Amino acid sequence: AGDFCRPDFDEKFCTMKDVRHLTIPQDDDGQRLDRWLKKNVAEMSFVMAQKLIRTGQIRVDGKRAKPDTRLAAGQEIRLPPMDERPEKSDGYRLRDEDAEMIIKAVIYDDGDILAINKPPGIATQGGMNIERHIDGMLEALTGKDGVKPRLVHRLDKDTSGVLLLARSAEMARRLGRMFQGRDMKKIYWAITSPAPTDMEGEIKAPLIKGTHGPEKDKMIVDHKEGQKAYTNFEVMEVAGRQAAFVAFMPKTGRTHQIRVHAAYAGFPLLGDAKYGEKAAIEGPGITQRLHLHARSLQFAHPVTRKAMKLLAPLPADLAKSWDALGFQKKPDHEPFADF
C-alpha cells in the first residue's frame, strides 16, 4: 500500500485503502489542519488535503472541519480510504504554493458565489504557451459538493483585483447574463501618465482587433468597423501634471477597453507597455508594471437579491506606487456614486 503515514504513527494506520484514525500528538497542538495533513501524511498534497476537507471526507472528532481549523492535542482525525492511483487530471499540474496562494486570495464565499483578489501576472485562463493560470488553480477551491468553481468573466494577465466565480453551472449562467446585461457596476483603479485635463468624463470610442502591421494583436479604435465601447472616468487625485489616480467604470466589456480608451484620450495607464509606450515614471517606490486594479464589483445577488459590493485591496507593489505619488489608498469619496 505504500508508506502513507509519518514513521512514528502506528503501522496499522498506514494502508491507503482503509479508513484511518490518527490522534494529534501534544507537539502538534495548534497547527492548521491542512498543513498538518501535508506534513504528516506522506503522499497527501496540499491540494488533495484541501479537496478532502472541503468535501467532508476528512473529519475532526467526527465533525466536518475547515482547512484552517486549528487542531488540539488528543483530537482524532479521520482519513477516508484513498485509491493509490493518481488523481484524475485535466493536464494542469497545480503546485502547492499556487494552491495556498489562491486560497489566501479569497475575499468572499457564500456557497453560491465566490470572489478572489486576483494576483497580477497570472492569466485568467489557459491557452497557447500559457502553463500557469487561475482556471487551473481553482481545483484548490473545490466546494463541499466536490465541484470546482467556474469562471464568470476575465481580467487581463497583468490586472489585479476582484474576479467573480460561480459554485455551479446555473449560477455561472445567471452571473454571465448579468455581465452581458450590464447589471454589474465595475470600478477599476489606475494611475495614468500624464493626468487627464478634465476631472471626469466619458470616453466613447468603438473598438476592434487590429489585423496587420504594428496594430496586429492589439485592440484599436475604429469608428467604422469597431464595436461600441463606453468608459466613464473620474480623477481622484493628481500629482502635478505627470500622474493621476483615476477611477474607471467601463459600461461595455471589450478586450483591453480601459487601456485603449485611456491611451486614446491622451492619458495612458502607467506601465502599459502595449498601449502606453510613453507612460512611464521612474523613481523610488514606482512599480514598473501596468497600474490597473479591479477595485470593486457591485450587483444584486442572484439568489437573495441583496445589494453586493465586493472590494479588493491594492496588491503590495501597486500600493507602493500609490504611496510614492502621495495618493490615498482609502479615498475620501466614492467614485461614480450617481450611477
Automatic annotation (TrEMBL):
InterPro entries listed in its UniProt record: PsdUridine_synth_cat_dom_sf, PsdUridine_synth_RluA-like_CS, PsdUridine_synth_RluC/D, PsdUridine_synth_RsuA/RluA, RluA_PseudoU_synthase, S4_RNA-bd, S4_RNA-bd_sf
Catalytic residues in the record: D156
Gene3D superfamilies: Pseudouridine synthase, RNA-binding S4 domain
CDD domains, per database record: PseudoU_synth_RluA_like, S4
Class in the EC hierarchy, top level: isomerase
Alphabetic keyword roster: Isomerase, RNA-binding
GO molecular function: RNA binding; rRNA pseudouridine synthase activity
The reaction(s) this protein catalyses: a uridine in RNA = a pseudouridine in RNA
The protein's Enzyme Commission number: 5.4.99.-
Swiss-Prot/TrEMBL GO biological process terms: enzyme-directed rRNA pseudouridine synthesis
Domain RNA-binding S4: 31-93
Function: Responsible for synthesis of pseudouridine from uracil.
Family (UniProt): Belongs to the pseudouridine synthase RluA family.
Listed name of the protein: Pseudouridine synthase
Organism: Micavibrio aeruginosavorus
